[in-house]
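Researcher: For the record, we're logging two predictions in this thread. I'll number them. Prediction 1 follows.
Model: Prediction 1, sequence and structure:
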Amino acid sequence: MTFVAIVPFRNDSAGIRRANAEAVLNWLSGLGISVLLSEHSAQPDSELIVPDGVRRIHTPSSEAFNKAQACNAGFKNTTEDAIALVDADTVMNSRVFIAALKRVAAKDEVIRPFGSLTDLTVTETEKYLTTQELPVSADTQRDDRRSGDVIPMCGGIVILTRERYFSVGGFDERFRGWGGEDDAFGYALARSGATIMIVKAEPAYHLWHDRNMIARATHPHYRNNVALSRWWHSAPAEELNKQIESAQLMLTPGWPARN
């Protein structure tokens, strides 16, 4: 079995997300697996330093960041059997991560390889960027919930087989900006009958960047994102299957990418 990590990415004006993405790519590139950076932005980030061996693709867009498009573009540009979708600001224990990849490859499960997500402080993040050493103890753990922000099954890091990704049509590209696409993908996988597992005893670590929850929840696409997420949760099976069949066409090599 072959393994790949797909990292969806767009930089911010301050360059903080660039620094975090470089740290995530450095971590993944040392694990002996394929790594692909899938950038969704108006222009590729010319200042981003990508480690040797990491592939890089770019989906040009002047619209809000679309993680769904970035993940699907990554899928179409890889061929590996097992896929880890890794946010460009999330890291964890390498041994646990690789073990989850191997388990997915063997058992066709969908695995979130962590049970709690520790929000690192600015100081802790700066230390990690310098040393790549994970904290010994956690100062603040979301443990699936923080100020109303719930960690979805497919948020942060999620691992699944290539066939399972394709079976639900990948991520729904109708989502725009922040919110809902991870929830919808999780609902789609659950409704497909996938065996889903969370490694509850293991933490992951969220590298610091500005998180303006008010701005996120008031952007012009947010209400539509919420409605789409609910649709994936409760839509009749016939409607769901039609959407999946249409999306699967877009995941087929050679199909034009949606702009």
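Researcher: Logged. Prediction 2.
Model: Prediction 2, sequence and structure:
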Amino acid sequence: MNTEPLMALKSVSRSFGNNLALDNVSLEAYPGEVHCLLGDNGAGKSTLIKTMSGVVNPTEGEIHFGGAAVHFRSPRDAQDLGIGTVHQDVGTIPLISVARNFFLGKEPTKGWGPFMRYDSATANRIAIEQIRSMGIRRISDAEQLVGTMSGGERQALAIARALYFGAKLLILDEPTAALGVKESRIVIELIKSARARGIALVFITHNATHALQVGDRFTVLIQGRVASQFVKGEKTREEVLNLMAGGEEFDSAGHGD
């Protein structure tokens, strides 16, 4: 495993009024590894994602990226550093093409000045190349409407887009939550593919089976606190499920193993 984390949260807390959503959370994300963030609804996963991606700032604690402390003024700051976030609904627009979705807001152009126009040939070629690089073979026409793609294929589009535009850390927010078994398998393979490229991944899920299939490091959150942290092979699926349910190990685990 890598020795230096790409991103490290150090004793991060976040309050909203009197509500303590995150309480003294520390975790690390390493290049070429998948850090699974596990927890039930209300565990604090969403607030943690927003903190890592620059949507909200910690009330206490520090975020380090690339070895230096960082302060995000907006999600754009996080994106500029190479932090990409893919949400459960992916954020694609169903009634426009694969290529248009891939380059949304960053369209390649040709010509100059008043003659500048969208370069559809370049956009189509790159979009298909990048999606295929993620192992998706069924999509061959970049003019195809995204609404005709499956859930797994849309995840592939979103992940390929984030990597193409320079993501070093990829935060995946419940990417398998609304998918069936076959589509979930596609997403698990996408995660493995991104890890093989040396990307640091944070995989947020409440599905312990999916997490254990692909995870290298694990953090279990309960009520905004770290119930347990462990690496691959240290806990069984049953132990993980017990932790996520707030089982007896929580009290003894404290703020982490």
